[in-house]
């Protein structure tokens, strides 16, 4: 079982400046929570967009990534994963103070070696297990989103990835940071860069984003192809998923099964294993192999270098799926839904 920490010595960050690079989902939450915890924060955010204006509105004086890196004793890169390495090489690396700590909230770039710290710079990961708006709203409400913590000595190799050394100064700074954003109120789980990165990628690919989207589409298509109305298929295969997931969230699989009818529970046991078969699990294992070997990361970075043609074409095609068309119409009938539209 994982080791979980609920408190930290906040002194570890005393007198230090934390540079938050990027004022997006995570950045805006970390910067404000840390400031309200008494930590000195410098925001690095490029001008010209909504996030720059938001940082100003929140009372920060945003500077360039280079300026922020210069000022930071702790430098957290909170940019999209696919742009981190370029910004790091151009703006952060040349300006890092010696003895600074380089931070992230997802280990992708560090684990796959796309960001390599200079000598004497230790690595730290503090990753809230929730989106930035929740990290902020929970903090304001007096709570906190649980976090993961990982550390690595600057000169260690990914292959030597080890659980964070609790006695190290970088670990203490990481715990003070987690406390500053509210994470210790929820609990902080010790992990490694490898474990955080690989489990995160696997979860989003096999289950949360890839797995669920394909499952929903396949169910919708099966009903529509059999002659049922698309509106009915939408309700049964997409809309009602929220009710089920809310039950999972509150009490796991057992509570969902307790709450639905016995007929639904019997059908779950009888048919679920016909949908997710041993072959599905074997494919999941192959997906995990691609993540562990670095093949997935390499493909994603190459895709970006080429201007993301496959990514953009797939996004367009997926947005045109009939389930998206019928969904748009139906959501307009449900005034309580905070309706969002993309594409
Ligand atoms: P966002 O996409 O919300 O924020 C992006 C930020 O990066 C914005 O400030 C944006 O500025 C800036 N940015 C984007 N492109 C560039 C560029 N080319 N050059 C300079 N700045 C740029 O990111 P997230 O907060 O979602 O993610 C940050 C990190 O946190 C990632 O490592 C992610 O994996 C991790 N994470 C995210 C979670 C989440 O739920 N979102 C949860 C846990 C971890 P502009 O407005 O000008 O484009
Ligand atoms: Mg992820
Ligand atoms: Mg039903």
Automatic annotation (TrEMBL):
It catalyses: (2R)-2,3-dihydroxy-3-methylbutanoate + NADP(+) = (2S)-2-acetolactate + NADPH + H(+); (2R,3R)-2,3-dihydroxy-3-methylpentanoate + NADP(+) = (S)-2-ethyl-2-hydroxy-3-oxobutanoate + NADPH + H(+). Its EC number is 1.1.1.86. The keyword Ion transport does not apply. It is an enzyme of class 1 (oxidoreductase). The keyword Oxidoreductase applies. One of its GO terms (molecular function) is ketol-acid reductoisomerase activity. NADP(+) binds at residues 23-26, 46, 132. Mg(2+) 2 binds at residues 200, 236, 240. Belongs to the ketol-acid reductoisomerase family. The lineage of its organism: Bacteria, Pseudomonadati, Planctomycetota, Planctomycetia, Pirellulales. Mg(2+) 1 binds at residues 200, 204. It comes from Botrimarina hoheduenensis. Residues 1-191 form the KARI N-terminal Rossmann domain. InterPro entries: 6-PGluconate_DH-like_C_sf, KARI, KARI_C, KARI_N, KARI_prok, NAD(P)-bd_dom_sf. This is Ketol-acid reductoisomerase (NADP(+)). Its cofactor is Mg(2+). The gene is ilvC.
């Amino acid at each position: 079982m994982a080791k979980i920490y609920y408190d930290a010595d906040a002194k570890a960050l005393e007198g230090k400046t934390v540079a938050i690079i990027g004022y997006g989902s995570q950045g805006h939450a970390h910067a404000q929570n840390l400031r309200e915890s008494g930590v000195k924060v410098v925001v690095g955010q490029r001008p010209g967009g909504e996030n720059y204006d938001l940082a100003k509105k929140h009372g920060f004086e945003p500077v360039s990534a280079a300026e922020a890196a210069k000022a930071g004793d702790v430098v957290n890169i909170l940019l999209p994963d696919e742009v981190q390495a370029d910004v790091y090489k151009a703006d952060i690396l040349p300006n890092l103070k010696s003895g600074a700590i380089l931070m992230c909230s997802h280990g992708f770039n560090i684990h796959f070696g796309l960001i390599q710290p200079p000598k004497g710079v230790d690595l730290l990961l503090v990753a809230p297990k929730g989106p930035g708006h929740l990290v902020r709203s929970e903090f304001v409400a007096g709570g906190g989103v649980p976090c993961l913590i990982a550390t690595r000595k600057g000169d260690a190799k990914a292959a030597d990835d080890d659980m964070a050394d609790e006695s190290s100064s970088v670990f203490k700074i990481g715990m003070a940071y987690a406390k500053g954003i509210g994470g210790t109120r929820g609990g902080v789980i010790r992990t490694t860069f490898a474990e955080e990165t690989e489990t995160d990628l696997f979860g989003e690919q096999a289950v949360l984003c890839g797995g669920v989207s394909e499952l929903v589409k396949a169910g919708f298509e099966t009903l529509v192809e059999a002659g049922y109305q698309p509106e009915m298929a939408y309700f049964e295969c997409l809309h009602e998923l929220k009710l089920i997931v809310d039950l999972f969230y509150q009490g796991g699989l057992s509570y969902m099964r307790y709450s639905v009818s016995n007929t639904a529970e019997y059908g779950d046991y009888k048919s679920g294993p016909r949908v997710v078969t041993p072959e599905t699990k074997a494919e999941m294992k192959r997906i995990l192999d691609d993540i562990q070997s670095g093949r997935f990361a390499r493909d994603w970075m190459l895709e970006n270098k080429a201007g993301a043609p496959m990514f953009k074409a797939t996004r367009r095609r997926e947005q045109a799926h009939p389930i998206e068309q019928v969904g748009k119409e139906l959501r307009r009938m449900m005034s309580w839904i905070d309706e969002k539209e993309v594409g």
